Amino acid sequence: MHIEQATIEDVLRDWQTADVSDRVRAGLRLCEFLTKHPQDLDTALLHELRSAGLNNLDIEDAANVAFHFNFINRLADAFDFPPTTPGQRRRLAKVLNRAGHMLGRKRSRPSFVRGGDGVVRPVELEVARKNVLTTDGQTEPALRQAIEAHAAAWFGATRPEAPVPTSTHAYIQKLTQWAYKITDDDIAALKQAGFDEQAIFELTFTGAFGAAIAGVELLFELLYGDRC
Amino acid sequence: MRIDLEHGGRRPWIAKIGLAVANRVLGFKPPPVLAVTYRPDLLHPALRRYITRGVSAHSSWTKGQSELFAAFVSDLNRCHF
Is B19 within 8 Å of B37 (Cβ atoms)? Predict the structure, then answer.
């Protein structure tokens, strides 16, 4: 179902007073937690979400959208995606929606798994994370593991944290906390430090992944931690 | 863009064809698609499955509600893309 542009603007002005249903406002509240302060997720919030009518699947699916955009927003800011016109955005949204409807699959059953490191995650993110951290690339897996850990730990996820090298520390800090502040100079500094474009892509992809997955992990521990 | 997402990377030929089709249909190559096809070895199919489910018919939110959450998260991140 389509949503009016006026509703979106209303929510962006003040989501707490916007004219939306209690269920949608609860979904927004969850997105706000996952994006800004996932370390504060607790059973009281879960109770609040359920009181507003959300079940576990609603919660999982709102978290899915939050993960997606917490990830892609960081790539957009780091790489400075060029702005699109409203017409381009409409056409793109139409195609992506169609693709989503064709390609989207039902969640696996169960939808969660406790990984080898003891953390509960959506099944797909467990597999994807392992791949991001271990696949052959321009950068050493150990560096990617340190970056993912650093970004995830910033948002309260449990990680045995390894030191992030000085050459990448400032960039990863910015990517994690204020990706919109990344400038050409930050990328130039990485190149100066010897990272080529593919290596920079790997660092960015990994940091964005770590920042986005942290909230989902904390949420899934609350939802399913006692079941696995 | 700060790195050449269009020509670099390890994009397989099938993704290059997909991008050419996207360019034909949309009139531009969407940056998010350039980013996620730049290094498909990093973007495991499981991650693709996960993120497409959020906007699929299998989501428990309507398409419009999912769009609202997406706009809200992007606004919180001060991302204007």
Answer: yes
**Under a CB-based contact definition with an 8 Å cutoff, are residues A205 and A143 in contact?**
no
Return the beta strands (E) in A61-212 as ranges: 112-114, 120-122
Q: How far apart are CA A210 and CA B18, in angstroms?
A: 28
pLDDT digits over B11-51, tens only? 999 999 999 998 998 888 999 889 999 999 999 999 988 98
Half-sphere exposure (CA, 13 Å, Cβ side) for A34? Answer: 34
CB-based contact (8 Å) between A111 and chain B?
no
Task: Considering only the beta carbons, identify the residue of A82, A99, A132 that sits closest to B31.
Answer: A82
- In angstroms, the separation between the Cα of residue A105 and the nearest Cα of chain B is 6
ipTM of the complex: 0.94
**pLDDT tens string A25-35:** 999 999 999 99
